[in-house]
Amino acid sequence: LHSDVDKGDGSIKYILSGEGASSIFIIDENTGDIHATKRLDREEQAYYTLRAQALDRLTNKPVEPESEFVIKIQDINDNEPKFLDGPYTAGVPEMSPVGTSVVQVTATDADDPTYGNSARVVYSILQGQPYFSVEPKTGVIKTALPNMDREAKDQYLLVIQAKDMVGQNGGLSGTTSVTVTLTDVNDNPPRFPRRSYQYNVPESLPVASVVARIKAADADIGANAEMEYKIVDGDGFGIFKISVDKDTQEGIITIQKVIFIFVSCEGNIIEIIEKPCLL
């Protein structure tokens, strides 16, 4: 600081007041030079409002009106990007087409976004290729391979990096992890472990008796693996029915009705009598 009335003869002295005066900033009362007494962190406080005055050294009276000025702390790149919401978990359906959005990750940088590139972040994927990719500007993670099969591998661990200075050399970086789970779609048909089953059943079994329990295997999970069984052939008289055990997903074959078939000596069917279900 310098006053127009200061002739350089030492008759003027300068004083400082306001935010941080004496503790953070000091003034040379002879020259008006202001110095900082400690390191300043823009992320703690970006501006300081100070007041200065020039006084007559003999009378201690102002020679000019008090002036106010602002010291702005200029930013340097001293903060790395941070993923405040990480680590992330996400899910995407198996067999999703390439480019399907999975999740968006966001890194924040405490440096000044209005000054230089200190807070301009770009994203890259360090682990998780070639299955996934990340948009450099937005942080949106997408699928990068087609036909990813949950039944082959259902979970992937990704490591995403955010680097400031627009990714240039010398920029600071931070990382986060993203666990991606492939969710199931109904892409596997049920299959019986055996092509045929054979059971011997006493003819005296009453109606509603369990004849057999069979189970088809399904590589899907959840609702996509819930079974429904039907008898499609071989039971023209409707003697049997099949239902599903909701707990085990087994097909339960039971006797639905009993019939009596009367055959002649020549082997011809004479009469068929259905036994009532109540008996």
Short overview:
The chain is mostly beta strands. It is found in: Membrane.
Explain this structure.
This is Cadherin domain-containing protein. Residues 3-83, 84-192, 193-259 form the Cadherin domain. One of its GO terms (cellular component) is catenin complex. Keywords: Calcium, Membrane, Repeat. One of its GO terms (biological process) is cell migration. The chain has a four-stranded mixed beta sheet with strand order 6-12-11-8, with no helix packed on it. A three-stranded antiparallel beta sheet has the order 1-4-5, with no helix packed on it. The protein is 0% helix and 36% strand. The mean pLDDT is 91. With 279 residues, the chain is mainly beta. It folds into three domains: 12-72, Cadherins (Immunoglobulin-like, Sandwich); 82-183, Immunoglobulin-like (Sandwich); 186-278, Immunoglobulin-like (Sandwich), CATH 2.60.40.60. The chain has strands at residues 12-18, 25-27, 34-36, 47-56, 67-72, 88-93, 101-104, 122-127, 132-134, 140-143, 155-163, 173-183, 210-214, 240-244, 251-255, 258-263, 269-275. The chain is built from no helices and 17 strands.
Characteristics of this structure?
279 residues; mainly beta; Immunoglobulin-like; 3 domains; four-stranded mixed β-sheet; Cadherin domain-containing protein
